[in-house]
Amino acid sequence: MTAERTRATGRPTLDQVALRAGVGRGTVSRVVNGSAQVSPGARAAVEDAIAELGYVPNRAARTLVTQRTDSIALVIFESGERFFAEPFFGRIVQSISSGLVDRGLQMVLMISQSPQERERLEGYLTRQHVDGALLLSLHGNDNLMATLEQRGVATVRAGRPTHADAGTFVDADNRGGAREATGYLAQLGRRRIATITGPLDMAAGIARLDGYRDVVGEGIVANGDFSEESGAAAMQWLLDRHPGVDAVFAASDMMAAGALRVMRQRGLSAPRDIAVVGFDNSVIARHTDPPLSSVHQPIEEMGQEMVRLLLAKIDHEDAGEGGLVLSTRLVLRGSA
Prior knowledge:
- With 336 residues, the protein is of the alpha/beta class.
- Helices cover 46% and strands 16% of the residues.
- InterPro entries: HTH_LacI, LacI/GalR-like_sensor, Lambda_DNA-bd_dom_sf, Peripla_BP_I.
Protein backbone atom coordinates (compact mmCIF):
# COMPACT_ATOMS: atom_id res chain seq x y z
CA MET A 1 0.00 0.00 0.00
CA THR A 2 1.42 3.42 -0.88
CA ALA A 3 1.65 6.25 1.62
CA GLU A 4 -0.95 8.16 -0.41
CA ARG A 5 -3.43 5.26 -0.27
CA THR A 6 -2.87 4.82 3.44
CA ARG A 7 -3.64 8.46 4.11
CA ALA A 8 -6.73 8.25 1.91
CA THR A 9 -8.16 5.29 3.85
CA GLY A 10 -7.78 7.03 7.23
CA ARG A 11 -5.19 7.73 9.88
CA PRO A 12 -2.31 5.20 9.74
CA THR A 13 -2.18 2.84 12.70
CA LEU A 14 0.60 1.42 14.83
CA ASP A 15 -0.02 -1.98 13.22
CA GLN A 16 0.41 -0.56 9.72
CA VAL A 17 3.72 1.02 10.74
CA ALA A 18 4.88 -2.31 12.19
CA LEU A 19 3.92 -4.13 8.97
CA ARG A 20 5.72 -1.61 6.78
CA ALA A 21 8.84 -1.69 8.99
CA GLY A 22 8.86 -5.49 9.28
CA VAL A 23 8.93 -5.40 13.10
CA GLY A 24 6.55 -6.17 15.92
CA ARG A 25 3.98 -3.72 17.24
CA GLY A 26 5.87 -3.48 20.54
CA THR A 27 9.02 -2.33 18.76
CA VAL A 28 7.09 0.48 17.08
CA SER A 29 5.60 1.48 20.43
CA ARG A 30 9.05 1.61 22.03
CA VAL A 31 10.40 3.83 19.23
CA VAL A 32 7.40 6.16 19.43
CA ASN A 33 7.72 6.40 23.21
CA GLY A 34 11.43 7.18 23.08
CA SER A 35 12.71 3.96 24.63
CA ALA A 36 16.40 3.19 24.28
CA GLN A 37 15.67 -0.57 24.18
CA VAL A 38 15.57 -0.74 20.37
CA SER A 39 18.38 -1.72 17.99
CA PRO A 40 19.62 1.00 15.62
CA GLY A 41 18.46 -1.01 12.58
CA ALA A 42 14.94 -1.52 13.92
CA ARG A 43 14.71 2.12 14.97
CA ALA A 44 15.71 3.29 11.48
CA ALA A 45 13.17 0.96 9.85
CA VAL A 46 10.39 2.22 12.11
CA GLU A 47 11.30 5.87 11.59
CA ASP A 48 11.31 5.34 7.80
CA ALA A 49 7.89 3.67 7.97
CA ILE A 50 6.51 6.49 10.10
CA ALA A 51 7.73 9.04 7.55
CA GLU A 52 6.36 7.08 4.58
CA LEU A 53 2.93 6.49 6.10
CA GLY A 54 2.59 9.87 7.75
CA TYR A 55 1.87 8.23 11.09
CA VAL A 56 1.13 10.67 13.96
CA PRO A 57 1.04 9.20 17.50
CA ASN A 58 -2.12 9.71 19.49
CA ARG A 59 -0.76 12.01 22.20
CA ALA A 60 -3.66 11.48 24.58
CA ALA A 61 -3.36 7.68 24.38
CA ARG A 62 0.39 7.86 24.74
CA THR A 63 0.07 10.02 27.85
CA LEU A 64 -2.20 7.42 29.43
CA VAL A 65 0.37 4.70 28.77
CA THR A 66 3.56 6.57 29.65
CA GLN A 67 2.15 8.93 32.29
CA ARG A 68 4.05 11.71 30.54
CA THR A 69 3.01 14.90 28.80
CA ASP A 70 6.15 15.27 26.65
CA SER A 71 6.17 18.94 27.67
CA ILE A 72 8.89 20.81 29.55
CA ALA A 73 8.30 24.22 31.13
CA LEU A 74 10.99 26.88 30.78
CA VAL A 75 10.22 29.52 33.41
CA ILE A 76 11.96 32.90 33.37
CA PHE A 77 11.51 35.20 36.34
CA GLU A 78 12.01 38.55 34.63
CA SER A 79 9.88 41.13 32.87
CA GLY A 80 9.08 40.61 29.21
CA GLU A 81 10.98 43.81 28.47
CA ARG A 82 14.19 42.46 29.97
CA PHE A 83 13.70 39.02 28.44
CA PHE A 84 13.60 40.48 24.92
CA ALA A 85 16.34 43.07 25.55
CA GLU A 86 19.12 40.93 27.00
CA PRO A 87 21.01 38.60 24.63
CA PHE A 88 21.63 36.03 27.37
CA PHE A 89 18.02 34.91 27.36
CA GLY A 90 17.74 34.46 23.59
CA ARG A 91 20.90 32.36 23.48
CA ILE A 92 20.02 30.03 26.33
CA VAL A 93 16.39 29.63 25.22
CA GLN A 94 17.55 28.64 21.73
CA SER A 95 19.97 26.09 23.18
CA ILE A 96 17.32 24.60 25.48
CA SER A 97 14.73 24.50 22.71
CA SER A 98 17.11 22.67 20.36
CA GLY A 99 17.94 20.09 23.02
CA LEU A 100 14.27 19.39 23.72
CA VAL A 101 13.33 19.17 20.03
CA ASP A 102 16.05 16.56 19.55
CA ARG A 103 14.25 14.41 22.13
CA GLY A 104 10.80 14.98 20.62
CA LEU A 105 9.68 17.20 23.51
CA GLN A 106 7.85 20.50 23.39
CA MET A 107 8.86 23.57 25.38
CA VAL A 108 6.33 25.69 27.24
CA LEU A 109 7.84 29.16 27.75
CA MET A 110 6.57 31.05 30.80
CA ILE A 111 7.70 34.54 31.80
CA SER A 112 6.79 35.63 35.31
CA GLN A 113 7.42 38.79 37.29
CA SER A 114 4.23 39.93 39.02
CA PRO A 115 2.66 38.09 41.97
CA GLN A 116 -0.36 37.28 39.79
CA GLU A 117 1.84 35.72 37.09
CA ARG A 118 3.71 33.78 39.75
CA GLU A 119 0.49 32.43 41.25
CA ARG A 120 -0.79 31.27 37.86
CA LEU A 121 2.40 29.52 36.83
CA GLU A 122 2.75 27.83 40.22
CA GLY A 123 -0.74 26.40 39.76
CA TYR A 124 0.09 25.24 36.24
CA LEU A 125 3.37 23.49 37.03
CA THR A 126 2.07 20.04 37.92
CA ARG A 127 2.62 16.54 36.53
CA GLN A 128 -0.70 16.87 34.70
CA HIS A 129 0.76 19.62 32.51
CA VAL A 130 4.56 19.11 32.34
CA ASP A 131 7.14 16.40 32.90
CA GLY A 132 9.72 18.81 34.24
CA ALA A 133 10.72 22.44 34.61
CA LEU A 134 13.81 24.53 33.86
CA LEU A 135 14.10 27.70 35.95
CA LEU A 136 16.00 30.81 34.87
CA SER A 137 16.78 34.03 36.73
CA LEU A 138 15.47 33.10 40.17
CA HIS A 139 15.85 35.87 42.75
CA GLY A 140 16.57 35.64 46.46
CA ASN A 141 15.57 32.57 48.43
CA ASP A 142 12.83 31.55 46.02
CA ASN A 143 11.50 28.14 47.10
CA LEU A 144 9.70 27.23 43.87
CA MET A 145 12.23 24.54 43.03
CA ALA A 146 11.60 22.71 46.31
CA THR A 147 7.84 23.08 45.83
CA LEU A 148 7.96 21.51 42.37
CA GLU A 149 10.20 18.66 43.46
CA GLN A 150 7.75 17.86 46.28
CA ARG A 151 5.02 17.60 43.63
CA GLY A 152 7.11 15.13 41.66
CA VAL A 153 8.01 17.65 38.92
CA ALA A 154 11.69 17.18 38.04
CA THR A 155 13.44 20.56 38.14
CA VAL A 156 16.80 22.06 37.17
CA ARG A 157 17.75 25.70 37.63
CA ALA A 158 20.26 27.99 35.97
CA GLY A 159 22.53 29.58 38.52
CA ARG A 160 23.87 28.45 41.86
CA PRO A 161 21.28 28.88 44.63
CA THR A 162 21.90 31.44 47.36
CA HIS A 163 20.61 29.03 50.02
CA ALA A 164 21.90 25.71 51.31
CA ASP A 165 19.33 23.40 49.69
CA ALA A 166 20.97 23.52 46.28
CA GLY A 167 18.98 21.03 44.24
CA THR A 168 20.22 20.46 40.70
CA PHE A 169 21.70 23.47 38.93
CA VAL A 170 23.97 24.51 36.08
CA ASP A 171 26.07 27.64 36.35
CA ALA A 172 29.08 29.40 34.91
CA ASP A 173 32.10 30.10 37.11
CA ASN A 174 30.95 33.64 37.81
CA ARG A 175 33.36 34.27 40.65
CA GLY A 176 36.35 32.90 38.75
CA GLY A 177 35.49 34.91 35.65
CA ALA A 178 35.13 38.13 37.63
CA ARG A 179 38.39 37.42 39.42
CA GLU A 180 40.20 36.91 36.11
CA ALA A 181 38.79 40.12 34.63
CA THR A 182 39.66 42.23 37.67
CA GLY A 183 43.09 40.63 37.96
CA TYR A 184 43.80 41.47 34.33
CA LEU A 185 42.92 45.13 34.94
CA ALA A 186 45.29 45.13 37.91
CA GLN A 187 48.04 43.61 35.74
CA LEU A 188 47.60 46.49 33.31
CA GLY A 189 48.67 48.78 36.13
CA ARG A 190 45.23 50.17 36.92
CA ARG A 191 45.08 51.22 40.55
CA ARG A 192 41.53 52.55 41.00
CA ILE A 193 39.42 49.65 39.77
CA ALA A 194 35.67 49.96 40.33
CA THR A 195 32.88 47.47 39.68
CA ILE A 196 29.27 47.81 38.56
CA THR A 197 27.41 44.92 40.17
CA GLY A 198 24.51 42.83 38.98
CA PRO A 199 21.44 42.41 41.23
CA LEU A 200 22.62 41.27 44.64
CA ASP A 201 19.57 39.08 45.24
CA MET A 202 20.84 36.75 42.50
CA ALA A 203 23.68 34.25 42.77
CA ALA A 204 25.41 35.55 39.63
CA GLY A 205 25.42 39.13 40.92
CA ILE A 206 26.81 38.07 44.29
CA ALA A 207 29.48 35.77 42.81
CA ARG A 208 30.74 38.39 40.34
CA LEU A 209 31.07 40.92 43.15
CA ASP A 210 32.93 38.33 45.25
CA GLY A 211 35.34 37.65 42.36
CA TYR A 212 36.06 41.36 42.03
CA ARG A 213 36.70 41.63 45.77
CA ASP A 214 39.03 38.63 45.68
CA VAL A 215 41.44 40.93 43.83
CA VAL A 216 40.90 44.44 45.23
CA GLY A 217 39.29 43.96 48.64
CA GLU A 218 36.24 46.11 49.36
CA GLY A 219 36.98 48.26 46.31
CA ILE A 220 34.71 50.86 44.74
CA VAL A 221 31.23 49.45 44.19
CA ALA A 222 28.36 50.89 42.16
CA ASN A 223 25.10 48.93 42.07
CA GLY A 224 23.39 47.83 38.86
CA ASP A 225 20.83 45.26 37.75
CA PHE A 226 22.42 43.89 34.52
CA SER A 227 20.53 46.43 32.33
CA GLU A 228 22.15 49.04 30.10
CA GLU A 229 20.42 51.91 31.87
CA SER A 230 21.64 50.75 35.27
CA GLY A 231 25.18 50.60 33.88
CA ALA A 232 24.89 54.16 32.60
CA ALA A 233 23.54 55.40 35.94
CA ALA A 234 26.28 53.58 37.85
CA MET A 235 28.98 55.08 35.61
CA GLN A 236 27.61 58.57 36.17
CA TRP A 237 27.74 57.95 39.92
CA LEU A 238 31.31 56.66 39.72
CA LEU A 239 32.55 59.65 37.70
CA ASP A 240 30.86 62.08 40.10
CA ARG A 241 31.92 60.39 43.35
CA HIS A 242 35.20 58.74 42.35
CA PRO A 243 36.77 60.82 39.56
CA GLY A 244 40.09 58.99 39.90
CA VAL A 245 38.69 55.66 38.70
CA ASP A 246 40.90 54.25 35.93
CA ALA A 247 39.21 50.87 35.31
CA VAL A 248 35.73 49.35 35.60
CA PHE A 249 34.65 45.73 35.72
CA ALA A 250 30.95 45.63 34.80
CA ALA A 251 29.10 42.44 35.71
CA SER A 252 27.32 42.31 32.33
CA ASP A 253 27.99 43.49 28.78
CA MET A 254 24.75 45.49 28.82
CA MET A 255 25.94 47.50 31.82
CA ALA A 256 29.40 47.93 30.26
CA ALA A 257 27.76 49.31 27.12
CA GLY A 258 25.87 51.83 29.24
CA ALA A 259 29.09 52.77 31.02
CA LEU A 260 30.92 53.34 27.73
CA ARG A 261 28.08 55.57 26.51
CA VAL A 262 28.35 57.80 29.58
CA MET A 263 32.13 57.97 29.20
CA ARG A 264 31.76 59.25 25.64
CA GLN A 265 29.27 61.86 26.83
CA ARG A 266 31.84 63.02 29.40
CA GLY A 267 34.61 63.18 26.81
CA LEU A 268 36.41 60.11 28.16
CA SER A 269 37.64 57.15 26.12
CA ALA A 270 38.45 53.51 26.77
CA PRO A 271 41.03 52.29 27.47
CA ARG A 272 43.01 55.56 27.50
CA ASP A 273 41.15 57.14 30.42
CA ILE A 274 39.26 54.17 31.86
CA ALA A 275 39.68 50.53 30.89
CA VAL A 276 36.39 48.61 30.81
CA VAL A 277 35.66 44.87 30.95
CA GLY A 278 32.19 43.30 30.79
CA PHE A 279 30.77 39.84 31.38
CA ASP A 280 28.89 37.50 28.98
CA ASN A 281 30.87 37.96 25.74
CA SER A 282 27.55 38.65 24.03
CA VAL A 283 27.08 40.05 20.53
CA ILE A 284 26.96 43.49 22.16
CA ALA A 285 30.64 43.19 23.07
CA ARG A 286 31.63 43.15 19.39
CA HIS A 287 29.61 46.26 18.53
CA THR A 288 30.41 48.76 21.28
CA ASP A 289 32.86 51.61 20.60
CA PRO A 290 35.53 50.42 21.21
CA PRO A 291 34.76 46.67 21.11
CA LEU A 292 34.38 45.37 24.63
CA SER A 293 36.71 43.02 26.47
CA SER A 294 34.45 40.55 28.23
CA VAL A 295 34.31 37.33 30.21
CA HIS A 296 32.93 34.53 28.05
CA GLN A 297 30.42 32.24 29.71
CA PRO A 298 29.34 29.11 27.83
CA ILE A 299 25.65 29.97 27.55
CA GLU A 300 24.81 27.39 24.88
CA GLU A 301 26.55 24.66 26.86
CA MET A 302 24.65 25.72 29.98
CA GLY A 303 21.37 25.21 28.13
CA GLN A 304 22.46 21.82 26.82
CA GLU A 305 23.55 20.64 30.26
CA MET A 306 20.31 21.83 31.86
CA VAL A 307 18.35 19.72 29.37
CA ARG A 308 20.64 16.71 29.89
CA LEU A 309 20.34 16.82 33.67
CA LEU A 310 16.58 17.35 33.59
CA LEU A 311 15.92 14.46 31.23
CA ALA A 312 18.15 12.22 33.34
CA LYS A 313 16.03 13.11 36.39
CA ILE A 314 12.81 12.44 34.48
CA ASP A 315 14.17 9.07 33.29
CA HIS A 316 15.39 8.27 36.83
CA GLU A 317 18.97 7.98 35.61
CA ASP A 318 21.96 8.76 37.81
CA ALA A 319 23.34 12.04 36.43
CA GLY A 320 25.02 13.05 39.66
CA GLU A 321 23.60 15.18 42.45
CA GLY A 322 24.09 18.86 43.08
CA GLY A 323 25.40 21.34 40.58
CA LEU A 324 27.54 21.65 37.50
CA VAL A 325 29.80 24.70 37.16
CA LEU A 326 31.22 25.47 33.70
CA SER A 327 34.47 27.32 33.04
CA THR A 328 34.70 30.91 31.82
CA ARG A 329 37.50 32.76 30.00
CA LEU A 330 38.48 36.35 29.34
CA VAL A 331 38.21 37.60 25.74
CA LEU A 332 40.28 40.72 25.08
CA ARG A 333 39.17 43.53 22.77
CA GLY A 334 39.78 47.26 22.44
CA SER A 335 38.17 48.52 25.66
CA ALA A 336 40.94 46.99 27.79
